[in-house]
UniProtKB/TrEMBL annotation:
It comes from Pseudoalteromonas carrageenovora IAM 12662. This is Glyoxylase I family protein. Signal peptide: none annotated. The gene is yaeR. InterPro entries: Fosfomycin_Res_Enzymes, Glyas_Bleomycin-R_OHBP_Dase, Glyas_Fos-R_dOase_dom, VOC_core, YwkD-like_dom. PANTHER family: FOSFOMYCIN RESISTANCE PROTEIN FOSX, LYASE, PUTATIVE-RELATED-RELATED.
Length: 128
């Protein structure tokens, strides 16, 4: 078996409209498909990233909140590749998104920072 890359990351949100706006308008991810599943009273939104990978955004009634930040068991955070972390940070802040101070990865020497989505899920910007 050979893994070829990551196809998608799945996120369950608490407020579908707010999260749809955040991922499609603020982060500017392209909407591929949007499905409403009446039997579950649930939305599934497929969003494309520039490299072909995707984010699946789900809404589920009564989904529990994340137990802690960021050290809960399970997926720790989702990291996005960017060419310039400083410019990306400035853009997010212009959209009234709080972004942590830029740090340097001591192993790779690359810049990175963290911010949160509307459900306070940790997202990272990593300079490539």
């Amino acid at each position: 078996m050979k893994l070829l890359g990551i196809h998608h990351a799945a996120i369950i949100c608490s407020d579908y409209a707010r999260s749809k706006h955040f991922y499609s308008h603020v982060l500017k991810l392209k909407i591929i498909h949007e499905h409403f599943r009446a039997e579950r009273n649930s939305y599934k939104l497929d969003l494309a990233m520039a490299d072909g990978s995707q984010i699946e955004l789900f809404s589920f009634d009564g989904a529990p909140t994340r137990p802690s930040y960021p050290e809960a068991q399970g997926l720790r955070h989702l990291a996005f590749k960017v060419k310039n972390v400083v410019q990306a940070k400035q853009y997010l802040e212009s959209q009234n998104i709080t972004v942590e101070e830029i740090r340097m990865d001591e192993i790779t020497g690359k810049k990175f920072t963290f911010f949160a989505d509307p459900d306070n899920l940790p997202l990272e910007l990593y300079e490539v």
